Amino acid sequence: MISLRGLTKRYGDKTAVDGLDLDVSPGRVTGFLGPNGAGKSTTMRMILGLDRPTAGSALVNGVPYAALRHPLREVGALLDARAVHPRLTARTHLRAVARSNGIAVSRVEEVLETVGLTGVAGRRAGSFSLGMGQRLGIAGALLGDPGVLMFDEPVNGLDPDGVRWVRELVRSLAAEGRTVFVSSHLMSEMQETADQLVVLGRGRLIADAPIGEVIAGSSVNAVKVRSPQASELGRLLAASEARVEQPSTDELIVTGATIEQVGRVAHEAGALLYELSNRSASLEQAYMELTASSVEYTTALLPGGPAETRKTRV
Amino acid sequence: MRTMTETMTRPAARRSGGGLAGALAAEWTKLWGLRSTWVCLAATLLLGLATSVLGAESIQISGGADEVDAHTLASLAIMLPQFILIALASLAVTGEYATGAIRTTLTAVPRRGTALAAKAVVIGAVSLATGVLTGLLSLAATAWYFGDSLEVTAEGLLYGLLGPGLYLALLSLFVLGLGAVVRSTAGALTGAIGLLVGLPLIAQIVGNETLLRIVDHTPNPQGQLLTSGGDVPHSPQFAALLMAAWAVAGLAAGYAVLRGRDA
Ligand SMILES: Nc1ncnc2c1ncn2[C@@H]1O[C@H](COP(=O)(O)OP(=O)(O)O)[C@@H](O)[C@H]1O
Ligand SMILES: [Mg+2]
Predict the structure, then answer these.
(1) Which ipTM score applies to this complex?
(2) pTM for the full predicted model
């Protein structure tokens, strides 16, 4: 369980995290989503007590991270940047970390096995590829068998196999009842992993909802109609409240009307239908929409609009 | 690759452990896991021995002496090794900032005081031991060259063995703290070498009384006093006190920055 209350971080006059209120619950994967520079890593660093909040608090299992006697047995974290001495072997690095928290050194071999690094455990961490480095970071996070796990952009640098492996790992950790908090700037990654979505834009909380709700709440949800009388039907629908697009001669995309309403209009007009279907927004679209509005909102307030907007592009 | 459920359900953690003892074990593991540590310490001992041998040769060439104290060459023996040991001490902190490993260290041991104390104990102990060993090598070289006229006293052994150990340990602790303040190897070493060599040199060139008085209290002269047992400009006891003050000041400053600034 992670609880953030009014969590704020300013670097000089730049506000990286802005009054974040959030509870991350156990037993599900919470996706922490936002464009680059949204403040995800900063939030995670504050949870770990690495950065000091300008205001507000971050509690893990009800206490500040620094108050935990064996922090790694309660929280395991993979940070976005590599945090391993490159001239230590993977095994020595993990042994040092284990000893610091009174974790049995035999556990090192277990997590090496889990992340698939047993064969290269005697090599220096500096010789690892980005993907192997991520696996080593994940091994470190799992070392203390913690109930809370935080992964900052865990699939960065991983090949498709690795991406799938992380996805399964994250899901199995949540299935075991752990609190799993995973950040990404890519919505596509979250679509198949997260149960709950926390969307951050410009340091502010934009959304905190089950993933289904985020999709359902998107205005991109539409009704698709295929009919030889598409044009006529389009005029009738447009006369009501609905917004209508006609991508091709026999196809309509209707927003602002339910599938039942569209069906009734078609029936009353005696139109022949080849297809009447709900087209739900992809998470990607919902996300673009969410963050786009946050960008519009902030660029209206801040000077140097266009350059800033480019930075927040996904 | 095994599945998570297989490995995660096993009880992994012992009940106790962690805290300062855990932090100490971690620092110890990291220090000896780096080849640079072995290289630095071997170089320290080698240089200590080599300078002692050179010193002995030069005494012999200039006609030798009727009586040679066991610790005669100890002051000479620490001159070069001290620069290697301050690099080792600095790297224990600044090396972690340079590589990002400090975030792992502080995530594992979030209490800044405990994290710094663990580094200080490990570096202090290793420097102390290396200093005593350097003194021992210097003593062996002295005995080898002047076996017949060697004079061994308890006081001589104290200055010859404990002197180098104490001086190098306290100097290392000062530099460790300095490293935690500046967070850069180049910065810490520039500062330390400036204090050890630069300032005394400038003071001598300028000849300013106040500056010379200040230099009398910097680490380098204390090293000479602690290893030779001389009493100009002050006693070895006072020199030890001054070195302890440098170490405490460095560590206190390092602790303040570690607490106050983001990692
Ligand atoms: N140490 C720092 N000093 C100054 N600015 C920082 C620092 N860390 C992060 N920032 C700024 O804070 C904002 C949030 O960064 P970050 O948390 O890394 O975002 P994310 O992880 O979502 O990409 C960015 O604009 C970044 O430039
Ligand atoms: Mg980031």
Answers:
(1) 0.89
(2) 0.85
